Amino acid sequence: MDRLSKLKSHGSWVGRWTFILAATGSAVGLGNIWGFPYKAGTNGGGAFVIIYLLCILAIGIPIMISEIIIGRRSGNSPINAMKLAARDSNTTSSWQIVGWSGITAGILILSFYSVIAGICLNYIFIAATSSGAIDSAEQFRNIISSPMNLLAWHTLFMFLTAIIVSAGINNGIGRMVKILMPMLGVLLIFMVINGIISGGFAQAFSFLFEPDFSKVDSNTFLSAMGQAFFSLSLGMGSIMAYGAYMPKEQKIISTSFTVASLDTLVAIFAGLAIFPIIFAFGLEPNSGPGLVFESLQTAFNQMSYGQIVGPLFFILLSVAALSSSISLLEPGVAFISEEGFMSRKSAAILISFLAWLLGIGSALSFNLWSDFNLTPGRNFLDSMDFIANQILLPLGGMLIAIFVGWFMDKNLINQEIGHVNPILFGTWRFFVKFVAPMSVGLIFYNAIFG
Ligand code: TRP
Fold it and tell me: How much distance in Å is there from the Cα of 390 to the middle of ligand 1?
């Protein structure tokens, strides 16, 4: 037996719903509720939304299916899963680069993700005690102007992430998402209804769904595509790692559609909950990362029982963030522990510490370092976001599509996909071979040379 066949096994998800819940838990997070509305807001609304939906369909879902195929075949971390798939398809082991770039992207994303999720944790208490005396936008400015405050919450969130991952995925997270994700759904619907009666719904609806293509340029495409990868947790191995624990009898294609639909629904609902408040209160839709906190807190200040609904909402948002952040940590931790370099626990501590250190830069970018640009025109947090979402994830995703479309042995693919409608299978093959890699390539080309 060679070394690759002897890697430590991680076991698999217990129960047929656990993969769907865990993958949905990974996908649904700050990207949907914090990221999507503010990115749609700063990119002109409807046109961004349409391009985003196209990216989910043409690029996201085909790549999600590919990631699960590679992951489930091997049962190992993305680096070794890629090595194994390449070896069994008689092609070069250099494909493992996908796994390495994924772990790097995971650390970069986790670093700023934890800072934003820390702000959500902080808002649980702000919403519980807010009397409405301070304007929400001013309150947000107060929160982010204190480096110590941001760092404290960032530390707490990173600590929670590391604890859950070190405990192993089945114990805890599976049970947690089963109760809390449906609750988040119910509260989100409640917030949409609140939006409908707030007076700004019609305006919000046309902002989100009436495209103004005059606002579209190559950057709109790049940012919608980055957001699609980010929201579906693709391009870095989160879904590949979770796929590794997926039971063999589960159907990959239909499961992927379920996860992607739930994720998209939550993003759209978040927009329909947030923008009506923005318009009803004359706030700016393009105010950036503070958008969600300012608009929702405005609503909670106005409504009766806001001091109960508000904290509840931020608790669930924090849980959604936690069920995503663990999937950012998992690929690296799985790799280190299956290689036997360290225990799962030590690996979780090591990687989360690296991400925590890097996160300090993002926390400071709201205050002390607000004028410091790491990449041209972007502060520290925006640079992390840009490098990971708009470069590493699409690149990783494109390589995965090229690998599965052109290099992976067809028999291996068939074994994982099982019996499906041949038209569905053929369509997926076509998208993985041509549409997904070419779209990513074209969007990159335009953003660089356009
Ligand atoms: N999808 C999550 C969100 O929308 C974040 C996330 C988790 C992620 N794992 C990922 C993003 C892997 C990119 C890659 O909040």
Answer: 13
Counting atoms of ligand 1 from 1, which one is nearest the CA of 32? 4
Q: Which residues line ligand 1 (CB under 6 A)?
A: 26-27, 29-32, 109, 230-231, 233, 236, 238, 324, 327-328, 393
Q: How far is CA 7 from CA 22, 351, 375, 428, in A?
A: 23, 20, 39, 31
* 25-82 pLDDT, tens digit each: 999 999 999 999 988 988 889 999 999 999 999 999 999 999 999 999 999 999 999 9
| DSSP string across 143-164 | HHT-HHHHHHHHHHHHHHHHHH
The predicted pLDDT at position 208 comes to 93
Model confidence pLDDT, tens digit, residues 117-128: 999 999 999 999
Q: Which long-range contacts (CB under 8 A, 24 or more apart) does 441-445 make?
A: 441/398, 443/218, 443/221, 443/222, 443/225, 443/394, 444/222, 444/394
Cα-flanking dihedrals φ and ψ of residue 375, to 5°?
A: -120, 160
Q: How far apart are CA 194 and CA 425, in angstroms?
A: 42
Q: Give the start-to-end residue ranges of the domains of the chain.
A: 12-70+103-231+250-386
- The CA 197 to ligand 1 mean position distance, Å, reads 32
CB 176 within 8 A of CB 378: no
- The amino acid present at 431, given as its one-letter code, is F
pLDDT tens profile 285-322: 888 888 899 988 998 898 888 899 899 889 989 999 99
Compute, in angstroms, the gap from residue 26 CA to the centroid of ligand 1. Answer: 6
Q: Does pLDDT of 1 surpass 60?
A: no
Rounded to two decimals, the pTM is 0.93
Tokens 């549409």, located at residue:
435
